[in-house]
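Notes, p. 3: input format for complexes.
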Amino acid sequence: MTPKIMIILGSGSDISIANKAMDMLDKLEIPYSLKIASAHRTPNLVREIVTKGTEAGIEVFIGIAGLAAHLPGSIAAYTPRPVIGVPVDVKTGGIDALQSIIQMPYPSPIATVGIDRGDNAAILAAQFIGLHDDEIHQKVLKLRKDYAQKVIESNENLVQPINRPFIRNDFIKVKDIEINKVQADEENGGCKNKDAEVAIIVGRQNDVLTAKKITKLLDRLKITYDMKVVCPIRSNKKFIDYVKSMKNAKVFIGVSSNCSQVTGGLVGLTARPVIGVPCTNENGDDYMLTAVNMPPGVPVATVGINNGKNAAVLAGEIFSIRNPEMVDILEKLKDKKISL
Ligand code: AIR
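Output follows (340 residues plus 5-aminoimidazole ribonucleotide):
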């Protein structure tokens, strides 16, 4: 049987990060393949593995590499399947690898996760496949519950026994709070098309320009969407109501500057894949690091700064896994771009 996920490492020295991905896939009971091939030392091996893997039925690729980490980008050159990139901290805290992976040009996105986050790459791959495989989606839901349970247990086991003269905790008991139940007005969430395939949430008016790049491309890909400008901090109830009212959406795209609260808020509210588009503010500060470096359990598939178009292409690639028509549309789009 061909596995659905292929992990490719730039070098044997990246194995500890691959182990995090494999541990997670073992936990989720999803078969995978693991290969080592360098984009620079063995480019032809990358091409052969990826081409053969795609032909054999691989649905999602995970590229793990450090330094000038061009591996995920080269994988994307040989497959229409979504590619998840994991930057490895070899030098400069992994920032060199992160930039090499995330800042891909249109129309070749890499769904980038945080530095050394092999575990989140595995979860993201499961989320992608979970869109058309309910058994895997159920496993992702269970995993999210386990992560939440760990927080509850930390409150019990770590905080409760603390005995200090001025600590006062008993007035709120975490174990009495129903953590998985989110209060939301799903009927009046403010969505215009509750059956849209993609929900786009924009944190503030200034980021609408970037969001428009997404909608323009989704129109060309014939993917339905709904879009709302709502800030999770300034209008928290509206944000939650909107996300919950879009519960049928298969993919969420958060367009976020200012600490990336949109993407961060989204992953807490949905188990579906969240694509993050980090934006710049008027001072030119970018929010890429705060979008991509998510903790284990809650990945954000982050694309390059202000690169709304790549977010739309990534959504198309995720949908194309079991949809040959979408593969054709994407191929045409890519060809057009190349013959500029
Ligand atoms: N690498 C390998 N070929 C191209 C790149 N960028 C990366 C590997 C590894 C780092 O270079 O992914 O993270 C160091 O590799 P090595 O083999 O020298 O230990």
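The mean pLDDT is 95.
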